[in-house]
Amino acid sequence: MEDLEQLTNQLLSFLAVRISPLSANQLKWSQAGTWSCSEVIQHMNAYASHYHPTLLKKMKSEENEQPVPVFVSSPLGASAWKSMRLGNAGNIRRKFKTPKLFNPAKNKLLVRTNFLEECEQHQKVLLTILDQAKKVNLRKVKISWSLSRLIRLRLGDALMFIVYHNRRHQQQLMNILSDPTFPHS
Asked: CB count, 10 Å around CB of 95?
């Protein structure tokens, strides 16, 4: 859990130091066929809006479940979060097609003006969720996966999926910022 908290804190710091100072022009800039910084962040917000309320509700309903000292992923859960993890070189190994529900380029309901503040708030809520998760059984609590309501992940797997998903998009933001054609203002 500490690793997940550390990655979430790193994302919060990255947002404050590298993304907050960007101009509106920089936030909207993108190469043809790729997302802008604002679209990446709005995508992350969509996932957080989907998962966070569910996580909080499920953990509250399972408060009496004793935590286990060692979490063991299910084969499906491990496959899900491993697919989100960055490669050894810190690169995005595999690209995925984003469902329309979570794609700000196709779902205009996701587009908000205060997206950066919303993302920072979501990450703070995620830190609270990670802290509360230490008090429940990460194997017994099940969360519906965003890609299919029929598939349920163990709470521990869902938390890893969410944090690694965020880390993956942090790397995507870093790639945008390091593009030689990224505007200076």
From this structure: 6
User: What Å distances lie between residue 107 and 35, 42, 43, 141, 185, CA to CA?
Assistant: 13, 10, 10, 31, 28
Domain membership of residue 60 (yes or no) is yes
Task: Please tell me the distance from the alpha carbon of residue 52 to that of residue 144, in angstroms, as a whole number.
Answer: 12
pLDDT in tens, 56-100: 988 887 766 677 777 888 888 888 888 777 777 677 666 767 666
CA 73 vs. chain centroid, Å, equals 19
Residue 185 lies in a domain: no
Closest to 165 measured CA to CA, from 57, 45, 22, 39: 45
Q: What angle (nearest 5°) sits at the alpha carbon of residue 104, between those of residues 153 and 111?
A: 115
**How many domains does the chain divide into?**
1
Distance CA 98, CA 81 (A): 16
Q: Evaluate if residue 12 carries a pLDDT over 80.
A: yes
**pTM score of the predicted model:** 0.88
What residues are paired with 142 via a beta bridge? 154
Domain with 12, as residue range(s), is: 2-19+36-87+98-177
Cα 147 to Cα 8, 13, 34, 111, 167: the distances in Å are 22, 29, 22, 21, 19
Q: 100: which DSSP letter?
A: G
